[in-house]
From TrEMBL:
Record carries keyword Nuclease: no
Protein name: Aconitase
InterPro entries: Acnase/IPM_dHydase_lsu_aba_1/3, Acoase/IPM_deHydtase_lsu_aba, Aconitase/3IPM_dehydase_swvl, Aconitase/IPM_isomerase, Aconitase_4Fe-4S_BS, Aconitase_4Fe-4S_dom, Aconitase_put, AconitaseA/IPMdHydase_ssu_swvl
Classification lineage: Bacteria, Thermotogati, Synergistota, Synergistia, Synergistales
Matches recorded under Gene3D superfamilies: Aconitase, domain 3, Aconitase, domain 4
Keywords: Iron, Iron-sulfur, Metal-binding
NCBIfam families: acon_putative, PRK00402.1, PRK07229.1
Domain named Aconitase/3-isopropylmalate dehydratase large subunit alpha/beta/alpha: residues: 7-283
Source organism: Acetomicrobium flavidum
Pfam family, one: Aconitase_C
Needed co-factor(s): [4Fe-4S] cluster
């Protein structure tokens, strides 16, 4: 049987299930990654499983998100992760080594293998031909403990690339074009598999930009074939022996097909506040720009930095513009320095920030109030850049460089003359000195826990009869940033659920947490694609801590749905989406979990309106048992104690 790339990798890793679309499968996970914003909780969860050492081929913990050290909380988290990594057999990437996705691509990603990461942009490694999936921290902790990962067998979309990108148009424009066509919901339940003659014109870093931001479509993941370009990348990293050729069979059958002629693309931007709000840059030229941010895990490769440096060399940034660059990794920083690019950028007036995430969520580099920030990052959600009055336009490095010079959104083809043609160096600066290998004597490791690292809260089982108010009613495309904000104020609380839960829905409704506590929890009512965006399990864990029993929505984003299950919150979908309109915030609800029928349909009673609303629980029978137990850790403990009896 002819297979796609995705099918080949899944078949090789399949533990349960078949390649039939839409049905649950379990696969073996070869590698995992966590970072400091999700990793402290994942490590506490790993500890709670009772295992002594991780069972994957490789697990890595990166310090890249919470780098600000204005008090003890972030440094304590870093130290805790370092100790836990040493004890449990996890490679530790020290602060300063770079952003997890970039460093993983450089040093560990392998074509044909599987990677599960507690970050929604884990698909970055798909740029090298790895099946790389983002998940909640608990799923990653369980994969580290040797459990297979369960997912719904996705549909596979062939993205057929032909032609070659014109000058001043780059990989970011390819993924913005995909988003323009399919929207932030268009990838749900799908893998985007990039093939065709246009692929060979893209470097591995450009491919990784595309697979990274494929997460914004809601896709399970995105992947490229592994070819001679991939081999050259691995050779430059001193890892050519890890290369394998990976292509779809000639007569592989795809569920859908998208055709993109690269030569016809033009510079694009995504306007605030969604990544699919995409228009040609020509339509928004002239908007005054206050800030430009280069970098993040999407566009901070050597290719990107050399491109920006080429464009800004010998020029000065506009007096209205504050410009900063977050390089993807220490390797890129060193290499860009060796090639003179950093000098060109610093001379032009660009601030060189750390090789870290910070600025991506506004930490250390946020726009002024009501300001416009042109950013090469992947998300421009409301409040994503550190506060809610900044307006973020997502753009390629070329468009961002044009904004830097002109002080307004501009078409780079009107600003620059000489395009830059990137050639991958045959060898890169490889220095593994910022990794710390696991301890050979784990029993001697004493894990240091600062006062901000609180134990996992106890989760009680879900009662059969759910009663409470609709504590909040929100619209479509609510992101995990809306539910549990990121940024300098919140990230240091990620290891402290009681403290961080006070900020649930803060950007939408600052009184939500207080109300939830006073009313002893209740229900959330939401529109379509609820929980899109990051893999942040705190967007389920903190609401659970506040007593949320169920979320009734038009539809859910994949990772958030899994996180609701993992933390024992019942997801329900309106059988008729028009019923969403009948409900108001503050209505009293009653739902009897035991009356779900064989197809998992049930009736939600709105006692205030005196109406009955048909709902469907979008779970398997096994997942419903997990929710009823109060979450996956309770479920595991319950089964372990049953086994002992
Ligand atoms: Fe970090 Fe932003 Fe990427 S937070 S992992 S640089 S999306």
């Amino acid at each position: 049987m002819a297979l796609t790339i995705t099918e080949k990798i899944i078949k090789h890793h399949l533990i349960n299930g078949t390649l039939d679309r839409g049905r649950p499968i379990t696969i073996k996970i070869d590698q995992t990654l966590v970072h400091d914003a999700t990793g402290t909780m994942a490590m506490l969860e790993l500890e709670a499983t009772g295992i002594k050492r991780v069972k994957t081929d490789l697990s890595v913990a990166y310090i890249d998100h919470n780098m600000i050290q204005e008090d003890f909380k972030n440094p304590d988290d870093h130290r805790f992760l370092q100790d836990m990594a040493a004890k449990y057999g996890v490679m530790f990437s020290r602060p300063g080594n770079g952003i997890c996705h970039h460093v993983h691509l450089e040093r560990f990603a392998v074509p044909g293998k599987t990677l599960l990461g507690s970050d929604s942009h884990t698909p970055t490694a798909g740029g090298i031909g790895m099946l790389a999936i983002g998940a909640g921290g608990l799923d990653v902790a369980l994969a580290m403990a040797g459990e297979p990962f369960t997912l719904i067998m996705p549909k596979i979309v062939k993205v057929n690339l032909i032609g070659k990108l014109p000058s001043f148009v780059s990989a970011k424009d390819v993924i913005l074009e995909v988003l323009r066509r399919v929207s932030v919901k268009g990838g749900v339940g799908k893998v985007f598999e990039y093939c065709g003659p246009g692929v060979k014109s893209l470097s591995v870093s450009e491919r990784a930009t595309i697979t990274n931001m494929g997460a914004e479509t809601g896709a399970t993941t995105s992947i490229f074939e592994s070819d001679e370009v991939t081999r050259q990348w691995l050779r430059a990293q001193g890892r050519e022996r890890e290369w394998v050729s990976l292509h779809p069979d000639i007569d592989a059958v795809y569920d859908e097909e998208i055709n993109i002629d690269l030569s016809l693309l033009e510079p694009l931007v995504a306007r605030p506040f969604l990544p699919d709000n995409v228009v040609p840059v020509k339509e928004v030229t002239g908007i005054r720009v206050d800030q430009v941010m280069f970098g993040s895990c999407t566009n901070s490769s050597l290719r990107d930095i050399l491109t920006i440096a080429h464009m800004l060399k010998g020029k000065r940034i506009h007096p209205n513009v504050d410009a900063g660059l977050s390089p993807g990794s220490r390797q890129i920083l060193l290499q860009a320095g060796a090639e003179g690019a950093l000098e060109d950028l610093i001379t032009a007036g660009v601030r060189i920030l750390e090789a870290s995430c910070g600025a991506c969520v506004g930490m250390g580099f946020a726009p002024p109030s009501e300001g416009v920030s042109v950013r090469t990052i992947n998300r421009n959600f409301y409040g994503r850049c550190g506060h809610t009055s900044g307006k973020v336009y997502l753009a390629s490095p070329e468009v961002a460089a044009a904004a830097c010079i002109t002080g307004e959104i501009a078409d780079p083809r009107d600003v620059f003359v000489e395009p830059f043609y990137f050639e991958m160096p045959s060898g890169l600066i490889v220095d593994e000195g910022m990794f710390i290998a696991p301890s050979p004597e784990p029993e001697k490791i004493v894990v240091r826990r600062g006062p901000n690292i609180k134990p996992l809260p106890e989760m009680g089982p879900l009662p059969d009869k759910l009663e409470g108010k609709a504590l909040i009613k929100v619209g479509d495309d609510i992101t995990t940033d809306h539910i549990m904000p990121a940024g300098a104020k919140f990230l240091p609380l990620r290891s402290n659920i009681p403290a961080i839960s006070d900020h649930v829905f803060e950007v939408l409704d600052p009184t939500f947490a207080k109300r939830a506590k006073e009313l002893n929890g209740g229900f959330i009512v939401a529109g379509a694609n609820y929980g899109q965006g990051s893999s942040r399990e705190h967007a389920a864990l903190a609401p659970k801590y506040l007593g949320i029993k169920a979320v009734v929505a038009k539809s859910f984003a994949r990772i958030h749905l899994a996180n609701l299950v993992n933390f024992g919150i019942l997801p329900l979908i309106f059988a008729d989406v028009k019923d969403y309109e009948k409900i108001d915030q503050g209505d009293d609800f009653f739902f009897d979990v035991t009356q779900l029928d064989a197809e998992f349909r049930g009736t939600l009673h709105d006692l205030t309106k005196n109406i009955e609303i048909e709902v469907v629980c979008p779970l398997s029978a096994d997942d419903l048992k997990v929710v009823k137990a109060g979450g996956r850790l309770n479920w595991i403990k319950l089964n372990a104690s049953n086994d002992r009896r």
